Amino acid sequence: xxxxxxxxxxxxxxxxxxxxxxxxxxxxxxxxxxxxxxxxxxxxxxxxxxxxxxxxxxxxxxxxxxxxxxxxxxxxxxxxxxxxxxxxxxxxxxxxxxxxxxxxxxxxxxxxxxxxxxxxxxxxxxxxxxxxxxxxxxxxxxxxxxxxxxxxxxxxxxxxxxxxxxxxxxxxxxxxxxxxxxxxxxxxxxxxxxxxxxxxxxxxxxxxxxxxxxxxxxxxxxxxxxxxxxxxxxxxxxxxxxxxxxxxxxxxxxxxxxxxxxxxxxxxxxxxxxxxxxxxxxxxxxxxxxxxxxxxxxxxxxxxxxxxxxxxxxxxxxxxxxxxxxxxxxxxxxxxxxxxxxxxxxxxxxxxxxxxxxxxxxxxxxxxxxxxxxxxxxxxxxxxxxxxxxxxxxxxxxxxx
Length: 401
Ligand code: AMP
Known about the structure:
- By secondary structure, the chain is of the alpha/beta class.
- The protein contains 14 helices and 14 strands.
- It folds into two domains: 2-147, ATPase, nucleotide binding domain (Nucleotidyltransferase, domain 5), CATH 3.30.420; 197-385, ATPase, nucleotide binding domain (Nucleotidyltransferase, domain 5, 2-Layer Sandwich), CATH 3.30.420.40.
- The strands form two sheets. The protein has an eight-stranded mixed beta sheet, with helices on both faces. Strands 11-10-9-12-14-13 form a six-stranded mixed beta sheet, sandwiched between helices.
- Strand 3 (25-32) and strand 4 form a beta hairpin.
- It is globular.
- The two termini are 14 Å apart.
- It binds adenosine monophosphate.
- The site of adenosine monophosphate has 11 residues, from helix 10 and helix 12.
């Protein structure tokens, strides 16, 4: 069966057509600047040259229509007919406490997802626009929702409750949900498979270090704690997000800077993290590390704090699981930056961790980067959220028959 995986943002739509048997990608691409002037479709199929088509896209419906036309295009396409698409798998960000796994999308599921919109106002409504567009254009094709929060629904109460009046949890479901779940699930499972070990008896820490970043403790195949919280703002220092801060800072800043709470939250989301710590410097990690190498003090303080926070979380999650067998690095920075991996590992000598400098030179492929004598196995595992969504989609659709 071919699964079309859709990841819909507010002005973009990423897609991948994956053969669920061979797990190979037949075509992939992105619609950019949807609803904005200068929209374009980037399409890449089966080893053929990438094409970029500038074409107006007023809304997501038009974007999905263009993707479907490209997939069956006699020259650049890979399908004869749209019937060959057995199912569509949608990345959905927030499923609250309602979804602990992938689900067949029905009117009720859309409604329940909409009910979580105020927990992820930037993501959920955009995700659902993609769902509606696909349902309209492919009414007979099953649609499956795969939530970023689902993998973390196994967290125990002591990990997901905040130290707040309990009535806020009861009334508003304020708690830790966690994100990047599809990535943490894929990477931890892949690590066990690569090491030929039983997933259900390993203690794994996954460091997903991209523009957004989170760390998860996976014990015996289940997420038991994760660094992002009710929203993706908590936890690590990220490209533009602050991660953990003292919540009292918010009121203090509203007074000192004469700003509203919403304005401060916007600063915490978009102008903090690596950008903010460098006084408006770059958010792209490659630029930050160039500036570090050149000895720029704003980059030095930023990277030191960035690495320190990761090491601190690894320590916390080792304690939470009473040990750790495997630490995995993934996403743009985790997969590519030997510098970050090496400097995080410098903090972890107490765990008996030793990094193999040569192996640590790896970029973007599954590899063990610790020495044979290291007490904990450290690995690079490139994430593949689209494949995980295709696998979950296949599982749900097969369960229907
Ligand atoms: P992601 O959100 O997973 O796409 O990751 C984006 C982050 O990965 C950005 O900060 C990029 O600068 C960083 N990144 C991508 N490629 C590299 C690379 N070759 N070396 C270091 N960082 C990289």
